[in-house]
Amino acid sequence: MRAWNPPAVPVVPGDGVTPLLHDTASGQRVEAGVDDVARLYVCGITPYDATHLGHAATYLAFDTLQRVWRDAGRTVHYAQNITDVDDPLLERAAATGVNWRELAATEIEGFRRDMEYLSVLPPDDYVAVTEVIPQVGLAVERMLQGGVAYRVEDDVYFDIAAAQEVAPWLLGEESGLDRDAMLALSAERGGDPDRPGKRDPLDPLLWRAARAGEPSWPSAVGEGRPGWHIECSVIALMHLGRDFTVQGGGSDLIFPHHELSAGHAAVLSGHPLARVYSHTGMIAYRGEKMSKSLGNLVLVATLREQGLEAAVLRLAVLAHHYRSDWEWFDDALEAAGERLARWRAATANRALAVGADAELEERAVVERMRAALRDDLDTPSALRAVDQWSATHPPAATGLVPAAVQALLGVTL
Ligand code: 5CA
Ligand code: ZN
Questions:
Q1: Nearest residue CA, atom 18 of ligand 1?
Q2: Beta bridge partners of residue 41, listed in sequence order
Q3: pLDDT at 24
Q4: From the CB of 49, is ligand 1 less than 6 Å away?
Q5: Are 262 and 192 in contact (CB under 8 A)?
Q6: Measured between alpha carbons, how far is 196 from 327 in angstroms, rounded to an integer?
Q7: How remote is the CA of residue 279 from the centroid of ligand 2, in Å?
Q8: Is the minimum distance from the CB of 148 to ligand 1 under 6 angstroms?
Q9: From the CB of 108, is ligand 1 less than 6 Å away?
Q10: How confident is the model at residue 293 (pLDDT cuts 50, 70, 90)?
Q11: Nearest residue CA, atom 9 of ligand 1?
């Protein structure tokens, strides 16, 4: 699918940094992206409703990662999926009397507009599950032939126990959860632990056979549609290959989605899916996780239509560490707007600056920003480095700080 137009990213003089990212699986910080090409997969939207600030915060976190990599001279290969066939989308389409394809197309277009507005760097491969149905069918067929999948009626399930013989690290490695916690989350997040006939209640659906009134496609394993986790495994392996640099998404995806998509990829490729599993915190609003199903949403489109400058929204989000859970309050925009105004005032004064001192000061500020971002993408500290510059330093003479703010934080001063 077409993604969206990229923002301009200036090249900033000096040495960029390789980020130390927190890895969910090991609980350690890992130097992520030491090779020339950094390969990133981030789970994309299920397009049945508009982009809210929770989504925006997650995509801004991985946008920061991409910007840090580029600043360090890495080539980034970024893939993202679109879950354009899944139960919540079909349910919403049925409830509102809209054709599911039209609903998906409308929301994907809205997402593109929101991402472009936010100056988020687009993925190189933006792939909808409806574009890879035959490939998913072939992957599921291989799993059946390899004895790591089985049928319940015409549906196909992943056999976790059999898969663990092939990839012993498979379950529990990423989430670190015990079985009871896994069972509870599986029921909550799209699984069907109570379905009779499954070998293990945790076994996830790989292929859902055609049902009356539901979309379906022919495939190597019969007429039907893909399960959720296998979609991301296949798209990631197709476009990035095995053992890629970072698999990312919100922390609500750690289990079952990421653990099992990594599990599927492990049996398909014989290797771990990614080197680092990176997860963002959840944004709450009015006391609860912002979610389409609860309806407690602040939409990016609403703010855009109110004429809010996207840089203000970026600063409001980047003021929080990507891994923390935090609550959105409407006055966050005011504080971010004031911060942006202070930075712009300092930039506008640069004509008054004097020579070498100012340049040295600016270099030091950029080094502080880079050091903060190397430290598990610590954007709050990077923002404070620019605050200090705008408050106490001689005004910029070379434009180095504004260039770094644009390249690393996506904010044009
Ligand atoms: N299509 C699947 C992934 S394959 C999906 O989870 N779609 S989604 O539209 O529900 O979410 C898109 C991304 O936004 C996911 O990475 C999810 O973890 C993240 N996300 C959803 N709600 C929030 C929230 N309240 N705060 C932060 N991130 C969120
Ligand atoms: Zn996914």
A1: 250
A2: 79, 247
A3: 96
A4: no
A5: no
A6: 40
A7: 12
A8: no
A9: no
A10: confident
A11: 45
Instruction: Say if ligand 1 is within 6 A of residue 51 CB.
Output: no
CB neighbours of 266 closer than 8 A, spacing ≥ 6?
163, 166, 167, 169, 170, 272, 273
For 195, phi then psi, to 5°, come to -70, 125
Residue with tokens 């379950």, as numbered in its chain: 171
In this prediction, residue 361 has a pLDDT band, given cuts at 50, 70 and 90, of confident
Q: For ligand 1, say whether the CB of 54 is within 6 Å of any of its atoms.
A: yes
How much is the pLDDT for 332? 96
Instruction: List domains and CATH numbers for the chain.
Output: 20-289 (3.40.50.620), 333-409 (1.20.120.640)
Is 356's pLDDT higher than 70? no
Q: Is 296 in the pocket of ligand 1 (CB under 6 A)?
A: no
pLDDT, tens digit (0-9, with 9 covering 90-100), for 13-50: 999 999 999 999 999 999 999 999 999 999 999 999 99
CA of 43 to the centre of ligand 2 (A): 4
Please work out, in degrees rounded to the nearest 5, the angle formed at the alpha carbon of residue 129 by the alpha carbons of 218 and 239.
115
- Cα dist from 308 to 117, 121, 315, 334, 406, whole Å: 10, 20, 12, 11, 18
